[in-house]
Amino acid sequence: METPNLPDGAWIRFLRAHAALTRELSSRLEALHELTLSDFDVLVQLYYAEGRRMRRIDLARSVLLTASGITRLLDGLESCGLVAKERCESDARVAYAVLTKAGVKKIEEARESHLADVEELFGSRFSPQEREQLGELLGRLP
Amino acid sequence: METPNLPDGAWIRFLRAHAALTRELSSRLEALHELTLSDFDVLVQLYYAEGRRMRRIDLARSVLLTASGITRLLDGLESCGLVAKERCESDARVAYAVLTKAGVKKIEEARESHLADVEELFGSRFSPQEREQLGELLGRLP
DNA sequence: AAGCTATACTTGAGTTCGCAAGCAACTATA
DNA sequence: TATAGTTGCTTGCGAACTCAAGTATAGCTT
Question: How many Å from the CA of A1 to C1' of C18?
Answer without folding.
Answer: 40
